[in-house]
Specification:
This protein is of the alpha/beta class and 263 residues long. The protein is built from 7 helices and 11 strands. It has 2 domains: 215 residues, Rossmann fold (3-Layer(aba) Sandwich), CATH 3.40.50; 30 residues. Helix 2 packs across helix 5 and helix 3 crosses helix 4. It is globular, with a radius of gyration of 23 Å.
Amino acid sequence: MDMIVCVKRVPETTEAELTIAEGGRSIKEERLVFDINEWDNYAVEEAILLKEKFGGSVIIIMVGSEAANETLRHCLAKGADSAVRLSDEAFNGSDGYAIARILREVIKDMKFDLLLTGVQSSDNGYGQIGVMLASMLKVPHATLVTSIEIKDKVAKVTRELEGGEGEALEIKLPAVLSIQTGINEPRYASIRGIRDAMKKEIKVLGLSDTGLSARDVGEAGSKTRIEELFIPEVGEVAEMLTGTVEEASGKLAEILKSKGLLG
């Protein structure tokens, strides 16, 4: 089984103090730590598990700068077979649509049974790439996938719905699946895997290798554009009500009444 996994390198922002870069359309990245996108990490693990079960190959593809090589080598250390990085100054400013188009131009000539992506990225959270790639490649797809079983060129998948519900689907391969967190437990890279990964070549392709023009990528080829980023203003602090249940309830009623929420 031949698989392709699209991944993204994202900043760790959970405990970081973010500041807006000059121009107001991006964040300052100098002091941020970057790692593989969480959802993509599960997609990589799922591809490796399927490869261990059925054989085949796993190719990792990313649009990113040279700094992203660290993320790609991490995937190779876990068990991926090869990696491709798409890098060109013309790609800067590309939205989800333009990124999907760049990926499609490289993937369309590759043989694959499954193309996996994460459900979304932790920086933008758009959740677009998998669906758009499926449309561009004209293959079936499923999103929010929480389990995969393969039999006779058919993927039996479960996808997450609202309210804790799930949906079971059968999808003919080749197909695109967007992977949800929790589908597996991503492994750690072994020392031997890390050593071997350092010897593997990361293939780098630019705009000229895609067959696209500068008008097709970047802001010119995008459907959306970030106009402004800003840090939300801090609102009023919470007021903690103390005392017994009766006392706290009385205080709450008075507050609601003072704000015109109670008659």
